[in-house]
Amino acid sequence: MGTESNWGRWGLDDEIGALNLVDASTTLAALRAAETGQVLSLAQPAGPGAGVPPHRNKSARYMDRNAGDYALGARSPDGFRFAEDTVTLSTHSGTHVDALSHAWSGEELYNAHSAANVRSTAGAKRLGAEKLRPVVTRGVLIDLVEAHGAPLDPSTPIDAEHLIAGYEMAAVEPSAGDAVLIRTGWWERSHGNEYFDLEPGLSLDGAQWLVAHDVALVGADNYAVEVQPSPAGTTFPVHLHLLHRHGVPLIENLALAELAASGRKVFVFVFAPIPLQGSTGSPVTPLAIL
Amino acid sequence: MGTESNWGRWGLDDEIGALNLVDASTTLAALRAAETGQVLSLAQPAGPGAGVPPHRNKSARYMDRNAGDYALGARSPDGFRFAEDTVTLSTHSGTHVDALSHAWSGEELYNAHSAANVRSTAGAKRLGAEKLRPVVTRGVLIDLVEAHGAPLDPSTPIDAEHLIAGYEMAAVEPSAGDAVLIRTGWWERSHGNEYFDLEPGLSLDGAQWLVAHDVALVGADNYAVEVQPSPAGTTFPVHLHLLHRHGVPLIENLALAELAASGRKVFVFVFAPIPLQGSTGSPVTPLAIL
Amino acid sequence: MGTESNWGRWGLDDEIGALNLVDASTTLAALRAAETGQVLSLAQPAGPGAGVPPHRNKSARYMDRNAGDYALGARSPDGFRFAEDTVTLSTHSGTHVDALSHAWSGEELYNAHSAANVRSTAGAKRLGAEKLRPVVTRGVLIDLVEAHGAPLDPSTPIDAEHLIAGYEMAAVEPSAGDAVLIRTGWWERSHGNEYFDLEPGLSLDGAQWLVAHDVALVGADNYAVEVQPSPAGTTFPVHLHLLHRHGVPLIENLALAELAASGRKVFVFVFAPIPLQGSTGSPVTPLAIL
Amino acid sequence: MGTESNWGRWGLDDEIGALNLVDASTTLAALRAAETGQVLSLAQPAGPGAGVPPHRNKSARYMDRNAGDYALGARSPDGFRFAEDTVTLSTHSGTHVDALSHAWSGEELYNAHSAANVRSTAGAKRLGAEKLRPVVTRGVLIDLVEAHGAPLDPSTPIDAEHLIAGYEMAAVEPSAGDAVLIRTGWWERSHGNEYFDLEPGLSLDGAQWLVAHDVALVGADNYAVEVQPSPAGTTFPVHLHLLHRHGVPLIENLALAELAASGRKVFVFVFAPIPLQGSTGSPVTPLAIL
Fold first, then answer.
1. How many angstroms away from the CA of C20 is the closest CA of chain B?
2. Mean pLDDT across D254-258
3. How confident is the model at residue C77 (pLDDT cuts 50, 70, 90)?
4. Which helix (H) or strand (E) holds D260?
5. Are A200 and A184 in contact (CB under 8 A)?
6. Which of D97, D195, D268, D276 is the best mutation test for C, with the most CBs of C within 10 A?
7. pLDDT number for residue C164
8. How far is CA D184 from CA C59, D161, D193, D220, D271, in A?
9. What Cα–Cα distance (Å) separates residue B210 from each residue in B11, B45, B176, B258, D283?
10. Contact map slice: B 170-199 vs A, CB within 8 A
11. What is the mean pLDDT of chain D?
């Protein structure tokens, strides 16, 4: 099941991938999912304090100017005072989206763009985070914690059947352009202190089902969306299937407990990443409008 | 005109300010402004390449891993390859929002929170960027380039009368919770190479009018929202009136040309900043849903 | 024992402290300690990989350009290729020197310079690392691992009597301007994975003895020179006695095993820190010329 | 004139290059050049404020903790207070040494080490800055400002004949292991505001002469040691001749005015770079002992 790839589907120059599946009419239809108008942030706290796997750089925030400077005598002309800061972020820490330049196989990125476009000095000249078009679309929550009665056990694979059951719980049919959010309970269970290793997550079977139904975005409340460890003989096959072959961005480290508690499975989903030029990912604060 | 301040208005502990003015019913009503479903990003390109005033740190992007590593022989188990990067950002560069900890006068921040909460090590323990609740509300474009027939001249003040005229062009009445976006043409005119100095922008008169009408957010396509230089005897009075006295976040460096070209003055406005813990601002990709 | 302080001893403007004790004649005399001409580095590996206590930022190195860029097709005019990088360093990680702005008590730094000189934006306007004059002087190794027959136990205090015995083992008298290096074995024992907590180190008694003998520099192979925890009712008293009251810079995290293995207790000591403007410390590669 | 290369000269694994030419007996002999014992730093101020060419990142210093925190009420147990900072440095800014991994041609670094060792993630696994052995050797100042009567004009090449004349002024013969420091006056003339472009500097002819005399280190008071622009049909030929073919580290941006004013042409030269693991260069504070 599932197409071989989406390469060429939206033209030889395409850098947008499955986000193409959300057009204005999709957005307009999605807005009808709003019932109460309540807006929920699906982002974890970002910056210093956000957990990162050991191989990535921790975030830091440096105060370039703060109240202490005034306490020590800095001038405040006409009473005006201000504070500023600089932050350092791994683009793959906290709640973030993987740009289509993040993962590939062989010499080509998604849509046959040469991998040689991803370099030290210039960063990702193709498929960088600034190409991740913001979208507003229908969101569907697949709540496996609710289905399972508890956070999923380590290394539980999430297959097509779980997704089908999730859509049934949501009482809607899969629709092109959907944003599918998967709650595994990993973040709630691990308190943010565990990363890839042993995380429950999407299997290749599940990813193929999502692609076959033309979803635009896939997100989860774990560190890599997909189940770890990867099945023998494969390495991050879901990343390759979704990002590389089909141009589906992945949103990682979502905060889904509050959304789950609302009881809403279908909602307006807003995706507005920071257009970091040449980056392979971006922090993002996805929203659910209930 | 205008209240003395909003301190205490939403309780002694409030750190949310004028964003409180957007509740679920405001959002639900705002969604009705959507006509076509087209989604526009109002963010300038971010990260390396984004202009910063000379006194702030330039952004940098460092590729922690990229395609060059594979070209040199790095292992790609089962064909899997990836790239990652780290970015450094001044939180007051590019399209960003000023958190309520950014500006104050005397020893107190907005709502009488002690300025001693804004320190080197812990950052902003009160009113940090993580307190900027995301909102979806009605957006109104005040297009002064259209009204003037050209980008505003340097140091042009934008007063209440201009805002009133702008609302008339938009054919709506001001409403509590509105997000008001002011197009001065500064960015288009300066090509991003000029900053505070001499920018046209909001006057204190204009700011007072906005507060009197209970707007939730104010943004502009210049570097500091307000006109520069400040009138004699004042320093950034609009920052103090909006951020400090009334808790109205400011969105700076908006990209408004495409929105202006759409002809739409009223739209659904989406604000979803990154919850950077303890920061005095955050990059943001505001959206207009047409 | 020990003077009350060195404040005013070298003038009211002095920012050099005990490094004043090394003049040209001291250096010329010290050079006579050279016997074989062998040069040893006393620095641990620096940058990424250097251990830092949990409350400090880890170092990072980012390759701005590297061989991978050429493997991917970057131009190499006339065959010329190059690589460059940017590093981020906590100035109190790895082998480093504490500048005299690093520690103080009350409102005044060493020599009555106002603590208000140490701020966010400008850094240390007084007593910054750029004031640490390089010196070449006589070095004396106090090898407590040799004396004890093993690395010192956790929290062992090093008193005047140990220093006296060390000088006796070195068969020289204390002399003004000496650089005294104390080998506790902490680094060798802890493999760089333990920091302040429970480290053996200099006691206030030992520090007073060093000051009474007008040493110019004190270094050790542990993270804070002084014993931890501090005695009840005191907090880093050796830092205050040496840095704050007497202007004696501290060199921390020295690599002393190779020097110890040489059998030499007296040698030419070279101290050439990086003049980081406004920093409170500096990485340094101290040398012993045998 | 000049050997083809030093590849293999010190063994197939060598990563030390011309620094091998300084052994213990060279150092011992060099120490005899000390006459007065005065110690001069040859380093420019480092860190924030140090000029960098436009294509490199500016340095920044961030105060992680400072006196302002105490002014705002941070606890100071038993009166102890401290300040700390983090710095970001381009390793090729300010007074620094080019490691042997900095420049090459084709697929091989100095001594046939594969260029594939210089990557994003691991940095320079061969010939990194941590391989730059500290040395103490004889320094010889070639003072072309004195010889010319003024700072050299832009793009003046420095040939063998100038070096020969400089050694004659110093009244010594070239000797294996010498550190040769060339004063062009570029820094004094440009006030640190000009970089590579048009700098006077060493020609290939001069570099060949230095290699033929087995110098260990070459430094200058300009940004790239060698004359710019490079002669037609070549790009940084002196970098390739010295670093790549002969393993001679280059010290750039030296501060030589004070040394020149001393009248001393021969002195003890101390080179103690920071062993930044995997970096392509290091900040350094070279010393002259007069």
1. 33
2. 97
3. very high
4. helix D257-262
5. yes
6. D276
7. 98
8. 35, 15, 15, 7, 21
9. 22, 28, 10, 24, 53
10. none
11. 96
Q: Is the pTM of the predicted complex or chain greater than 0.90?
A: yes
Dump pLDDT digits (tens) for A108-128. Answer: 999 999 999 999 988 999 999
Cβ–Cβ gap D27/C81 under 8 Å: no
Q: How far is B94 from chain A (nearest CA, A)?
A: 10
pLDDT, tens digit, 9 for 90 and up, residues C220-229: 999 999 999 9
Contact, C254 vs C219, CB < 8 A?
Answer: yes
pLDDT value, residue C1 = 41
pLDDT at residue B184, rounded to an integer:
98
Query: Do the Cβ atoms of D119 and B68 come within 8 Å?
Result: yes
CB–CB contact C67 B68 (8 Å) = yes
- Which residue, among D59, D62, D92, D118, would best test binding to A if mutated, counting the most A CBs under 10 Å from its CB? D62
pLDDT of B52 above 50: yes
Within an 8 Å CB–CB cutoff, is residue C45 touching chain B? Answer: no
D160-170 and D204-212 helices cross at what angle (nearest 10)? 50
pLDDT, tens digit, for every residue of A29-50? 999 999 999 999 999 999 887 7
The vertex-D151 CA angle with D145 and D152, nearest 5°, equals: 95
pLDDT of C124 > 70? The answer is yes
**Among candidates A87, A91, A103 on the partner chain, residue whose Cβ is nearest the Cβ of B91:** A87
Longest Cα–Cα distance of chain B, Å, equals 68
How would DSSP label each residue in D276-287? BTT-SEEE---E
Nearest-angstrom CA–CA distance, B129 and C33 = 59
Residue of C23, C61, C104, C240 to mutate for D, most D C-beta atoms under 10 A: C61
Which of A 196-235 lie inside 8 A of C, CB atoms? none
Q: Which amino acid is at B106?
A: G
| H helical segments located in D83-231 | 144-148, 160-170, 186-190, 204-212
Contact residues on chain D for A69, CB-CB shorter than 8 A: 68
Residue C244 is given by DSSP the state I
C68 vs B64: CB contact, 8 Å cut-off? no
Kindly tell me if the per-residue pLDDT of D1 is higher than 70.
no
